[in-house]
Every structure is written in C-alpha cells, then in structure tokens.
C-alpha cells in the first residue's frame, strides 16, 4: 500500500469504507483522501462513510464507461469480470469477503426489473449504480426528468441481496426509507453553520421531499440461503450516484459535489 511504502500510518477504515476493495477488476487503483479538521462537532449518519465512498466510486465507474463508449450497466458487469471473492481490506482474516457473483446478481436483477434495455419516454433519463456495504449487496436504477433546470426523480428501482430474507416487508421498508433519506440529502438543503452553530434546528427548517415529490420506489429482494446481513443502511449509497449518472445521461454534466445545486444543472 502507498502509505506503507512511504512509512505513513494506515488510514482509519472509516475514511473510505469498501472503496478500498471494489468489485471491479483493474490492475491500477489508487485512493487518496484528505482529512479535513473542523471545530464543528460531527457525528455519523445513515450509511456512515459508505454514502460518500459509494458516490465517488460509482460516479467514477460511470465516467469510465462513458470514456469507453460503453453502456454503463454492461460496462459494470464486464469490469467486475469473473466470479471471485475479494478479502476485506480492513480485516482480511475475519471480515467477510466481497463476492463478485452476488454483486453482479443484484446488477442483473435491477437491470431486468427496471427494463434497462428498453427505451424511455422522451425527456426521461436513467442511471445505475451498485455497491457493497454492511456485508450486503445493492444496486439501483434511477429515472429522472429535468424541466426548466428543475430535477425530478420519478422512479427508483432497487435490487438487494442481504442474505436470507427473514422479513421481506421489513427489508423493503428499510430500503424505501433509505431512498427518501438519500433524496433529502442530495436534493434538498445542506447543513449550514453560522458562528459555529448549525442553522437547521428540526424539520420545520430542514426540507424533505413531500409526497408529491417522492419518487416511485420498487424494491426487489434476492432469494438467498446465505446468512442475513445488514439492510438498514445499505440502501443509501447507490441513490446519489444513480441519480447523478442519470443527470449525466440527460445533460452531459458530471455532478461531483452534494447536495446538488441549481447552478450544477444550469
């Protein structure tokens, strides 16, 4: 690893999550991060570090697909390549390995259920993303429209593999909640600081999508005999990259910061 060669301390696992052992087969892979110190106290939120890592990895994979002139879904399958198990970077002996067959499985399922290969109505665009977190595999397809510079997320289709689905309705509820949480975070207000204090106090001054702004959400659960794994948080990381990849399909513009601002779409 780069830091070992340079005599530096290994970064905290929480700095980049499973971005350190992605399913994509590549001979060259480099991760950089910068620790930003702040006087404002911070705490974890839903999906913790996976939301930022998922956004970065799945946005960049989409950029590679575009550079290769390839379909984003087909490019992902091809780049993942053969079925194999990738050791947990943070805990290679005890941690669960990433099973590329299961990651490809959710990508195939979400492409099927979203009818990825079929043309969309005029003015509607789609994007795809897949990610591994909390020992579970997720993939999402987002359909969006843009009118007068205003973004609307119309539909989100999920495929999730969290092992044996003990309570399928509970799985769907968790994933639907993660979708709303994600849409709130990247489409609505950012958290702002004024004189060291957060300005947003509660839901009276922090916006969330209303019912008329909420996309149709479909959740498809993989039937599995593997042991159950996490599902409260893994639904979140694929939302922002799937939507931003759809924005690229619509406009040719790449979103590299969140939340999305009107000037990003202009």
Distance between the termini: 41 Å
Structural class: alpha+beta
Strand arrangement, major sheet: 3-4-5-8
Number of helices: 7
Question: How many beta-strand elements?
Answer: 8
Order of helices and strands: HHHEEHEEEHEEEHH
Query: Sheet bearing the most strands, described?
Result: 4 strands, mixed
Unreliable stretches, pLDDT < 50, 5 or more residues? none
The overall average pLDDT, rounded, is 90
The coarse silhouette is globular
Considering DSSP H and I runs of 4 or more, what fraction of the residues is helical? 25-40%
Q: Which strand-content bin applies to the residues? A: 15-25%
- Radius of gyration (CA) equals 18 Å
Brief write-up:
With 266 residues, the protein is α+β, with helices and mostly antiparallel strands. Helices cover 31% and strands 18% of the residues.
How would the blueprint of this fold be written?
Elements: H1 2-5, H2 50-67, H3 72-80, E1 85-86, E2 98-99, H4 100-113, E3 124-133, E4 136-147, E5 150-161, H5 168-187, E6 193-194, E7 197-198, E8 216-221, H6 239-251, H7 262-265
Parallel strand pairs: 5-8
Antiparallel strand pairs: 1-2, 3-4, 4-5, 6-7
